[in-house]
Design a protein that fits this description.
The protein has about 400 residues and is an alpha/beta fold. It folds into two domains: about 180 residues, Phosphoglycerate kinase, N-terminal domain (Rossmann fold, 3-Layer(aba) Sandwich); about 200 residues, Phosphoglycerate kinase, N-terminal domain (Rossmann fold), CATH 3.40.50.1260. The protein is built from 15 helices and 17 strands. The chain is elongated, with a radius of gyration of 23 Å. The two termini are about 20 Å apart.
Length: about 400
């Protein structure tokens, strides 16, 4: 059954690419180190759609942003390293258009493309018209191709020129990655298997307030970790020592938890935590009860008892959505909670979805990404879908 999120959205099954020049908006915003791609996950995620178009006889004008150049040219954020890595992955040359994102030279190079060839545009965010969704910039991008394909789920929640402007000007289609994301997340939006468990972590309640409010009306159990759990513990009346707390959120969190419990939602909070006196990788760590955190120490991970409790909820779930690490997982001393949740996600018989961002990075770091049902490529977009928001990049593709 087609998810309502895809209703009215043409896909590659509706497109005959032969002889067409396709503007492919991908998410190639890969981590970089020393001028080279440090993690090629987003590049490899774009390959199935790219290969299908090329094998079908299309030429491709490929476009993405990289980093946050704020509308100015930053040579450190050029797409050249992305083009080199894609050339190796595809086994064909992926030329990078130089001299600006658009302009006469780019137009000429796009027009000269033959079937099976790829031209990668320079970083879209070098032009301020991208984030501003400037009509003239969208016109220039749309003029480069016959049809448009969006495969950039990670940018689908942004009303930018290459996301919502271009498909308003030429026929648009969902790529394979975007289609898969909407199908999977649509299951959680429409009719998740029960019990439905959400695992939320990360730094701040305020960053996830809207998805928290939405999920608390939909899930059977929610488990909270990361630094945000200390705001929840403070809302329960606990002294959390020097742990990070959003004091302005405490009363609201207390009301949300009260209402959720009244509606029968189980709210799991840490019963033990890993603490240290300093926010540092080499800070001596110890495990204490959540109601006995020393005044001079801060919580930096959930403890083993809490990890086991969260893992048990995951094991018994019909569907699980996880977004946000349980602690400072980049540091070994504070990574056990995140590792325990990731391992539980890999083992559960339930439908396990990792909602992008740092939680996706964690399962990849642990080598477990191929053992969960779905690892989303867009944390922000996934959260907005679960909040019930329409994504501009999907709305722009929809045909009445």
């Amino acid at each position: 059954m087609t998810t309502p999120l895809l209703a009215g959205v043409p896909t590659l099954d509706d497109l005959d690419p032969a002889g067409k020049r396709v503007f492919l908006r991908a998410d190639l915003n890969a981590p970089m180190a020393d001028g080279e791609v440090a993690d090629e996950l987003r590049l490899t995620a774009s390959l199935p759609t790219l290969r299908r178009l090329l094998d079908g006889g299309a030429s491709v004008v490929l476009a993405s942003h990289l980093g946050r150049p704020a509308g100015v040219v930053d040579p450190a954020l050029s797409m050249a390293p992305i083009g080199r890595r894609l050339s190796r992955l595809l086994g064909i040359e992926v030329a990078v258009a130089a001299g600006g994102v658009t302009g006469p030279d780019v137009t000429a190079r796009a027009a000269s493309l033959r079937p099976g060839e790829v031209l990668l545009l320079e970083n879209l965010r070098f032009d301020p018209g991208e984030k501003a969704n400037d009509p003239a910039f969208a016109d220039a991008l749309a003029a480069l191709a016959d049809v448009y394909v969006n495969d950039a789920f990670g940018a689908a929640h942004r009303a930018h020129a290459s996301v919502s402007g271009v498909p308003a000007r030429i026929p648009g289609y969902a790529g394979l990655l975007l289609q898969r994301e909407l199908e999977v997340l649509g299951q959680l939006v429409r009719a998740p298997a029960r019990p439905y468990v959400a695992i939320l972590g990360g730094a701040k309640v305020s960053d996830k307030l809207m998805v928290l409010e939405s999920l608390l009306t939909k899930v059977d159990t929610i488990a909270v970790g990361g630094a945000m759990c200390f705001t929840f513990l403070a809302a329960e009346g606990l002294d959390v020592g020097a742990s990070r707390v959003e004091h302005e959120m405490v009363d609201l969190v207390a009301e949300l938890v009260r209402a959720a419990r009244q509606d029968g939602v189980e709210v799991l909070l840490p019963t033990d935590v890993v603490v240290a006196r300093a926010f540092a990788a080499d800070a001596p760590a110890s495990i204490v009860l959540a109601n006995a955190i020393p005044s001079d120490q801060m919580g930096l991970d959930i403890g083993p008892e809490s990890t086991a409790s969260y893992a048990e909820a995951i094991a018994e779930a019909g569907a699980i959505f996880w977004n946000g690490p349980m602690g400072v997982f980049e540091w070994d001393a504070f990574a056990a909670g995140t590792r325990g949740v990731a391992e539980a996600m890999a083992l559960t018989p339930g439908f396990a979805v990792v909602g992008g961002g740092d939680s996706a990075a964690a399962v990849r770091k642990l080598g477990l990404d191929d053992r969960v049902d779905h690892v989303s490529t867009g944390g922000g977009a996934a959260l907005e879908l679960l909040e019930g928001k329409a994504l501009p990049g999907v709305t722009a593709l929809r045909r009445a």
